[in-house]
Each structure stands twice: as structure tokens, then as C-alpha cells.
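Data availability (excerpt). All sequences and predicted C-alpha cell strings are deposited with the supplementary files. A representative entry, insc, is shown inline so that the format can be inspected without opening the archive.
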Amino acid sequence: LPSLSLPSSMHLIQVDSVQRWMEDLKLMTDCECMCILQSKPISIEKDEQNELFLSSQYSTCDNLQLLLKRAWIISTELTRIAQKLEKNKWQRVHSMTVRVNCHVRSMINEYNTFNRNSSEEMHQFEKLLIEKCSEFTAFTERCIQTEDEQILKSTKSCVNETLTTVAQYFGQLIDLVLTHEAQNLMRQIELSDSVYITESAISSLFSLTQEGAHLCRIIAKEGGVVALFKICRQDCFRCLYPQTLRTLASICCVEEGMHQLEKVDGILCLADILTDNTHSEATHAEAAAVIAQITSPHLTFTRHLSSFLENMEEIVTALVKLCQEASSGEVFLLASAALANITFFDTMACEILLQLNAMKILLAACSDKHIVDTPYSRDQVVTILANMSVLDQCASEIIQGNGVQLLMEMLFERSSSGNSAEVAACERVQQKSAVTLARLSRDPEVADAAIKLSCIPRLIKLCRSPPERNNSDSVLVACLAALRRLAVMSPDGLEDSDFQQLVKPRLVDSFLLCTNMEESFV
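C-alpha cell line:
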């Protein structure tokens, strides 16, 4: 993220660098000339049709995307100015300052072209920012006209101070603009009876949520969660439920969104949607995605969801049913991800899953390669199995569902694409399958089944061969723990060297021995 307290909403979308350059080129080329041209009318007369054509050329969403791109360029330029200023490269500082000045004016002109009802506060910030940018340019121009080191040294603090002020005004103006646009979208959603207008507003809102947590906070503070749940409680908007729920899932990645969800009894609404069989599978899947988001173990503020515990049993029941009836891998992934997170959220969830025969359903799903078709899905399944394996009753369920065979297969999980996210998912699958085996092998029947399926040789290979576990330390620790548990049940299954190095020493010593195998002595 850019420094100088710039808006955190701006981030570079990960796309091909040439494509990115082509997109930015029109915003960055000859911006001084463009700034002057944008201030001039195309025709001599004030042609209202021309104005209408210019303002309706893009949708609100397109205009906001253009604004955010321009803002990202400005924030990047300001950061680069700070870097050049630190190195006393005054000529570069001045040329970049001129460019920022022009970009700021262009951004304000572009925004005012499609927005006709800006607030007085916004106009005030626009004026302040333009004035401060002009002052900044004048400062740097004076600096390139002198070579006196003392003057430059004394001026540098003033330039730094002005740069910081420009960044602050810029950040505040962007926040005002985004808040204004969020308010407009909220108004459309709350006041419109038209499915088309509401759909368009929700679509624009969803696009904004994809710009980062800062924008999600703004939307939440402006009542986005309240407005969207209002849609989810009206039958006339049923066709918009999937899109609405997807937007809610994005907003609820921030604490402000979660607070709003609690205030409007959002959990109850989600439970009602999940348990209503008249809703489409797409609606159920998106409701499951919201549940997965709000129960994420990575979010500390989700622990205060008291209303979730009150509705947990019916939510878990509905999610298990969704896993069982899923028509695609994506639907299964969303439902199983929600279940996996819930098993972290509360231990009672594991007991409910056991009563619902969830283990049998999940194990059966894993045999269908059209449903459990990625390492991400297998990661969710093995997470649930690992968390359920703390219950003594799970052992018999695993044996009956051929679960030991599945866990053995998961120890061989490898990425086919080499994609970093997929590789990380494969590591989690290996680690959690080893953890599950270690926990379940306290039952002699499970341990015996694992030994017969040659789990011990595979665990030894994972310990001794770093590439097999993608050099993952967490996989190594889990495999050592599982190996030690199985070795107790079948000491004859290990060669003496394996026993002496991987089982007999303290776990930390075995760990260090295995990690040292990665070192090269060439």
C-alpha cells in the first residue's frame, strides 16, 4: 500500500503487466495537455445533448472504476515523490509534482462530469487540494532553480510538509467521494421497487467491495449491510438474492460489517434462507458463503457472534444437506468451507455433525471427482475430519466410510498447476490428514487399517524427503506425530534407522534432523 496515509482502498489488480500498462497509458500520457483540453467545451454553444452523451457514456460503476484508477496513479506518484525527495533528486521531484498536479485536476474534472450534486464539503476539499498542489509545484520549481545546498536543505522540510498535506487532502477527498457514491447506491437500493435498478445498484456496490477493506468499511458505515438484508427479506427480489448475498459476504470481511449484521439479526435471516427449500441452490450456496466469511477463524471479531450459537444447529443441518445435494464443485466448496469454519467456531458443532452422519456424507462426496474436484475442497473436508477426530465416536465412522483410505490418499496430495495458492492448499491437506491419522490412531482398529494401507512408509517418505512435503515444516511435524502414534501400535513396521531417528528421539530433535536434510553441502 502507498505510504503517506493514502487511502488503503487503492490496490494494484494482479493482471498482466503489459495489459496494465496499456490501460494506464491513456491516463498517464500527456496529462498536462489533457488537463487543459478537459477544461474547454468541445463546441462553442452549450450543447446539452453533448453533455448527456459524455455523462452517459459509462455507467456509474465504470466512472467509479476510472476514478479509482486515477486515484491509484496519484497515490503511487505521491509515494514515488517521497522516495525521490529522500534522495534529493529535485528535477525528478518537480516533474512528478507537475504530473500529480495535472492528474488531480483531471480526476476532479472527470468526477464532476458525471456527478452533478457534490456537497459543499467536497467542493471545499477539491479547492484546498488544487491550491495545495499548485503551492507544491511552485515550491519544487523554486528548488530546481537553485543549486545552493543550504537553501535546498532548509526548503526540503517545507516540501515534505506540503507533500504530507497534499496526501492528507487527497485521501480525505477520495473518502468523501466514495462515501457520497456509497450513499447514492444505498438510496437506490432502499427506495427503488424496480428489480433492474436495484440489481444495477447492487452490482456497483459489489464492484466497490472488491477494491479492499477500506471501501467495505465505508459501505458498512453508510448502512450497506442493513440495506442488503432488507432486500433478502423481500420476496419480490428473490432473483437478486445470490448477488445480494455475495455482496454481503464481501462487506462482512470487516468488523464494521459484522456489527451491522448483528444489529439487523442477519444470522437469523441467513438461517431462514438456508432452511427454506423453495430457494434456489445458488441462493443457498451464497448464503453458505456468508456463513463461511463470518465464521472465519482468521477474523478475531467473529467470536462475539452470540446469535450464531442460537441458530447453529439448523444452520449446520442445512449446510450438511447442501453438501449432500451439491450439483457442482463450487457449491460443495462453499458449503464445506462454512462447515469447516463452524467446527473451529464451537466444539458443539462437531457433535451435531456426528449426529447428522456428516462424516459419511463427506467421505462419500470425496469419491465423486466432479464434486470434490480441487485441493481446496479436500482441504475443507479434511479440516472437518481433523476437528471431528477429537471425538471418540469418530473412529467407527471413519472405518465404516473407508475414511482411512481417503486420509492415505491425501498424504499424496500434490499441486498439478504449481500455483502458489494451490500448493499451499496441498500442504494443508497433507498436514491435516496426518493430524487426523495421529488423533484417530489411538483407536487400535484405525491404527491397524492405516498400517495395512502402508501409511508408515508414506509418512517416513514425507519426513525424509522435503520435496514430497514441499519443504513444509508444518507437514513434517504432523507426519512425525502420526508416525510416532502408529509406531506404538506396530513397532515392527519400521526399520531400525527410522526408529532411531524419527521415533526414539524427542520430537524436536527428529524435526531438526529432517529439516537439516534440506541443506546443500556442495
